[in-house]
């Protein structure tokens, strides 16, 4: 907190000069009272439930998609009621959307116990901190349901797969769909260098707890 002393108005200065001149003729001069200093702050703003200001589900969708993260350093102007009056980004190592999201959420959610001066009065102040944004990892897939499916596909001489189909499937078909998407084979040299059809069975079976 910067303190300041206000300069006496010109009219009062003129009165003081006139009073000084009158004192030479026997009049008593009265000096103006000194300016009153504002008490300095003796406490800083204290964050209230800072962990709830920015949550994982606040992560911008574009940053999640691109796997972007970073550290955003910020400054908050906190008013005497403990609310954010202004947010400024001091430094950011990530994309602009993370900096913008940081200030937007802090302005909406951040609350403080305000700073106080020596007389115990709540006063405006500033708060500095930073947020680390880390792109969430893809959650692990759930356990597949038990079932069986027959995968049939055409394998080209260069090992690529086409005409892949799935028949049956006791569990959800999505559990076996990756089989078609992930099929890859080495090129087929010599007499095998021609398209061939391939059929195999995929089975998911649970055997109970380990013994």
Strands, helices and their partners?
Blueprint: H1 10-23, E1 46-47, H2 61-66, E2 70-78, E3 84-92, H3 96-109, E4 112-113, E5 115-116, E6 122-123, E7 125-133, E8 147-155, E9 161-168, H4 174-182, E10 196-204
Antiparallel strand pairs: 1-4, 2-3, 2-7, 5-6, 8-9, 8-10
Question: What do these coordinates show?
Answer:
- The structure is a single chain.
- With 211 residues, this protein is of the alpha+beta class.
- Among the domains are: 46-133, 2-Layer Sandwich (Fusion Protein Consisting Of Minor Coat Protein, Glycine Rich Linker, Tola, And A His Tag, Chain: A, Domain 2), CATH 3.30.1150; 147-204, no CATH class.
- It has helices at residues 10-23, 61-66, 96-109, 174-182; strands at 46-47, 70-78, 84-92, 112-113, 115-116, 122-123, 125-133, 147-155, 161-168, 196-204.
- The strands form four sheets. The chain has a three-stranded antiparallel beta sheet with strand order 3-2-7, covered by helices on one side. Strands 9-8-10 form a three-stranded antiparallel beta sheet, with helices on one face. The protein has a two-stranded antiparallel ribbon with strand order 1-4.
- β5 (115-116) and β6 (122-123) form a beta hairpin.
- The longest helix is centred in the first third of the chain and has 14 residues, at 10-23.
